[in-house]
Structures are given as C-alpha cells and as structure tokens.
Amino acid sequence: MTLVAGVDTSTQACKVVVRDAATGELVRSGRAPHPAGTEVAPQAWEEAFRAAAAQAGGLDDVEALAVGGQQHGMVCLDADGEVVRDALLWNDVRSAPAAADLIRELGDGDEGAGRRAWADAVGLVPVASFTATKLRWLADAEPANADRTAAVCLPHDWLTWRLSADRDLGSLVTDRGDASGTAYWSARTGEYRLDLLEHALRGRRPAVPRVAGPAERVGTLADGRAVLGPGTGDNAAAALGLAARPGDVVVSIGTSGVVSAVTPTAVADVTGTVAGFADATGNHLPLVATMNAARVLDAAAALLGVDHATLSDLALSAPSGAAGLVLVPYLEGERTPNLPNATGSVHGLTLRSSTPAHWARAAIEGLLCGLADGIEAVVAQGVAVERVLLIGGAARSPAVQQLAPGIFGRPVLVPPPGEYVADGAARQAAWVLSGADAAPEWAQPGLQEFDAAPAAHVRERYAEVRGRTDGQ
Questions:
Q1: Mean pLDDT confidence for 247-258
Q2: CA distance 78 to 145
Q3: What separation, in Å, do the N-terminal and C-terminal C-alpha atoms of the chain show?
Q4: What is the pTM of this model?
Q5: Does residue 154 contact residue 174 with C-beta atoms inside 8 Å?
C-alpha cells in the first residue's frame, strides 16, 4: 500500500490524515490545537503539525504530502527567512479601513470606479480578510516591520516551506487557489499584479511565492523521502476532497461560513460579494464568505443553556419562520455583507415567539439565510448550481440538515463527517505522486440527500430586517 498525507493547518487546529494513495482509504490521523486569536506566531503552526503528525503515527512511511490551510493570512519574512511579526489571520479586521482606502485609491477617489478596477484586475474587491489590506495596515501602522519584510506569504505557503528541504526565500511556493485570495494575483490571467502589491505596501515590493501547477512536485520533506505537493487554500482543498465538479456548490459551516462553486469560468463581481478565486485543479472557485457560522449555534446554545442536540430538537419543534422572530447573526462583525463593525440583531420578538424553541429556530434560520444569500450571489454571476454539498461542524446538526434545503431552495447532499481540507490535500498528494492528468478517483460512500419544500417566506422575512443593525 502506497501512503500519502494531507494536512489542514486551519484557524483552530492542525489536522493530519494518512490515506491509501490508490483508494483514499483512511489509515490513521492526528490533530493538535492552534493558539486562539486573530494574531498568531507562525511557529505555533509548525509545532502543531509536528504534534498532529506524531499522533498520526509519524510520516516515515508516507510517499507524498500536501498542505491545505486557512487563506489570506499575512506572514512576513525578513531577508534571513525569519518571521518579522506575528501573522495576521483572515479574521483580523483591523485592516478594514485599509481596504476602504485601497478601493478609493484605485478609483482616484471614486469608490464605484475603484471597485470596478479591483474586480477587473484580480477578480475581487478588497475587504479586511485579504492579504493586500493587511499589508497596507502594516505599511501604515508598523512601517519599520514593513521595511524589514523581504518576502510575504500565506499560512499554507509558510508551512510547506518550513517542511521542505529547501528553505531559502526563493523556494517559497503557493498555488492558484491560495494565491487568488491575496488581492494581488489574478485567477483570470494567472499572473501576479505586483503593482498592486507595491501600492498596498506604499512603494515596497517584497518577494512572493512562485505559483505552482495543480499537481506539480515542489520539493521533498526535510526529514524524509516524501515529495511535496503545492498545497492550496482550505476552500479549494475541501472542494478537491469532496471531488466537487462544475455545477457543484459547497456550503461549509465551520468557523466561517463559505459558499463556493466550481466553474470553468472566471468571475469578477464589482460589488465585492463574490470573490473570484481559483480552485486546486485549474478551474475557478467563486466564493462568498461570512464571518458568522457555526459559532452562531454555539452562542444560541449557550444562551439557552442547552447542548447542540437539544438546540436542534428545539428548532425542529418550532414553526417555519419562528412566528416572525428573526436573528441577523452578525455577532463578530461581518465580511459578507462587508460590515466589520456590525452587531447582531433580533427582530419580531413577541410573547408568542418568546420561547426557547422559537429562539433556536430563528438562530438556525438566520444562519442559513445568510448562506442562501451567498448562493444566490454566485448564481447571479452566471454560475450554474446543480448540487449543494453541505459540510462543516454545523452540518452535523439534524436541524441544519433538514432546514437547509427549504431555505436554499435546492436539494442538499451531506457527506459523512470528515476532515475535508486534509482529505483534499491528501488527494492532491496522491495526484502529485501519480503524475496523472487528473486527481485520483476516490470512492465517497455515505452521502445523505435532504429535500424540503421551498421556504421563501423565511428568506423574505430575513431580507426585510437584515439591514437594521448597528455598525452599518
């Protein structure tokens, strides 16, 4: 049996899976936590990888490895390859003013023109999540650190580089999927926009990773014979792990909420709602992301003093639409819509709806309505939607599974719980090892299909009140 390993260096933890390269069968796995917060020392990711790999029984018998990881984070390196400052993660919103500045500047003071210019240039409009905005924040808030920055990369790039036998700055490598979330690489042209990088850093132009092909061998592990794949961003890795194809929409409800669709056509949304990302196979992955996802259910369960199973039961016992009770779940600000300072809001609270069941239903419906808006935004860009694949920690909730089809207006397929990002990285590693033209076909048993009558009244009610919140 030939073994490959996939790594998910996510916001909260590092996961390692070891799989049979031919069949995809899981052989063993491991996990280790990452520090909390939106600013993290990258060394913690390497330490977590070592711990997760050890828990997985080590990697001495693995032939190939690839890394999937959280997107957009800013990792700055000096000329000696040392980390300049702690990395800013995707969910660090201190760069929101910088994003607004970059939009106005590219439009010569006209925000609308700036949005069009960014969408045309790189397929997205800056928000606080993207790396370019964090670099502008660095240039303005910490100019000395900006001066020291000889190279800038992303979390998955950095960990791949640290695991490699070749650790000079010139060996930094990334892939299309992760590069497309920087706001200085275009999925449509396949090229960096170094002028935009330099503009973000106010005249500085650090080195950036080489963008490797989807199945390119980019090196070998420093402590073994295994070859390294280019890896990718977490959303592209999940799509690869699910074998998502054109016509599929993947809805992930984890730390963040993500709607991503596989399509052969590049997308450029001037509103900034849909980011024109690339996938890990050569296609495109237009994507909508929200900051409020599974933790909305955590908050609802904590407020009601129940566990998640009871929260689900309560929600399913309440009527559709929760008797007009709506939760707009902007509990940590929001990325889509771009409201970094927004707060959550509750509407329609009456004596009738003042029950735990109505509150549970409103929390789940509010979460799903935000994601349904994301699906419709992708469809509005001309992307075909034939299947919805529902994944992430919250996808295990029976209430989420049963309510999603009605609110999404489409049947929903739920795969068995798994480490989809790490699985996608492992599938890429097997592809790299094989040298084939396409990723290996791995069986995907256990898909459950859910369907329900459309719940248009829930969407309509949510649309009535979603703009009534502080921080607009």
A1: 91
A2: 9
A3: 56
A4: 0.89
A5: yes
- Please state the rounded mean pLDDT for residues 441-458: 92
Give residue 373's pLDDT: 95
pLDDT reading at 260 higher than 80:
yes
- What is the Cα gyration radius of the chain? 21
What's the gap between Cα 170 and its chain centre? Answer: 27
Phi/psi region, residue 396 (left: phi>0; alpha: psi -120 to 50; beta: rest), is alpha
Tokens of 129: 């999540």
Mean pLDDT of the chain: 95
CA distance 450 to 401: 7
List the beta bridge partners of residue 5: 18, 65
Q: Place 185 in a pLDDT band, splitting at 50, 70 and 90.
A: very high
Evaluated on CA atoms 421, 424, 426, 428, the torsion sign reads: negative
Of the candidates 75, 209, 88, 211, the residue with the CA atom closest to the CA atom of residue 149: 75
- Given 157, 178, 234, 269, which residue is catalytic? 234
pLDDT digits over 370-420, tens only? 999 999 999 999 999 988 999 989 999 999 999 999 999 999 999 998 899
Are 187 and 277 in contact by the 8 Å Cβ rule? The answer is yes
Distance in angstroms (rounded) separating the CA atoms of residues 117 and 107: 7
The whole-angstrom distance between residue 372's C-alpha and the CA centroid of its chain comes to 17
CB-CB contact of 85 with 142 (8 Å): yes
Would residue 234 show up in a list of annotated catalytic residues for this protein?
A: yes
State which amino acid sits at residue 174: T
Closest CA relative to residue 49, chosen from 17, 88, 76, 90 = 17
pLDDT tens digits, 187-241: 999 999 999 999 999 999 999 999 999 999 999 998 878 999 999 999 999 999 9
Neighbours of 33 (CB within 10 A): 12
219-220 and 39-40 beta bridge pairing: unpaired
Residues forming beta bridges with residue 17, ordered by sequence position: 6, 29
